[in-house]
Amino acid sequence: MPKLSIIIPCYYNEVNIPVTGAELIANEALFPSEVSFEYVFVDDGSGDNTVKALYALRQQYPNRVCVIELASNVGAYNAVVAGIEYATGDCLAVLTADLQDPPALLAEMYAYWRQGIRLVIGNRQDRPETGTQRLMATTFHWLMKRFALRNVPSGGFDFVLFDRQVAREVLNMRERNSNVFYLMLWLGYPYVNIPYVRRPRQLGQSRWTLSKRVKLFVDSFVSFSFLPIRLISLTGILLGTLALLYGTYIIGLRLLGGSEPAGWSSLMVVVLFVSAFQMLALGVIGEYVWRGLDAARNRPLYVVKEVSEPLA
To answer: Which CDD domains does the protein's record reference (predicted)?
Structure first.
């Protein structure tokens, strides 16, 4: 009897949990009768009553609901990895706690898995964001597809169903400061892409701040692309070539007896430009070096405070 584990990372979602739980249970009717379900809720250090709401849901469905409490906030992607580690299903899915991704789509994703597809992606065709947020998201996904992972679907994704084998590979990597969904793509398994329109959030407020968006972009891009390092090298070559040409020009003027250009202002502009580029280059290189140091420390991605597994 196949078992589907649905992983739901939670962060300040106390008002969402009762609604989410009820919709997930109702959604089981869309699946074949032989499928069993496990709901792995991972609390990512919430400061509200999310944990209390999760245990209340577990009391209602003790045979289905698993509650994992993390000791501190480690980010949604690390929380997903924690859920993967404790999930016991033959296939696993990741779903947001605010139900912006439709649970009904899981039935179609599961059908593809039964056909032997190890990775099934729900691809957003439209976004609820507007203005600057929409522009940032569009730019992020374009850069990732153009310069990092060519097989990333346009518009990105964080709604996915995957095989136990994919889960094992992700856990074996234990990669830090990365993007767990893009790691699944990086593995190279063929995948099916199912388009859908994301629903607007009905309850609660999003905690997806600008700083978290920037960190996600930097982590994802640096993890899967060497373009920043290559651009530094190319810019260095360009600046060196320009300096050589300008130096040759100055030497030629002196040898030919021409007047050398007076250029205190232009000299300062050049010095400041080169200095700014050097500081920027050091910052980019530092991002790569710091990630290597962080990996070498081998600290855990998360610390589990308590686990309440489903009753047998």
So the answer is: DPM1_like_bac (cd04187)
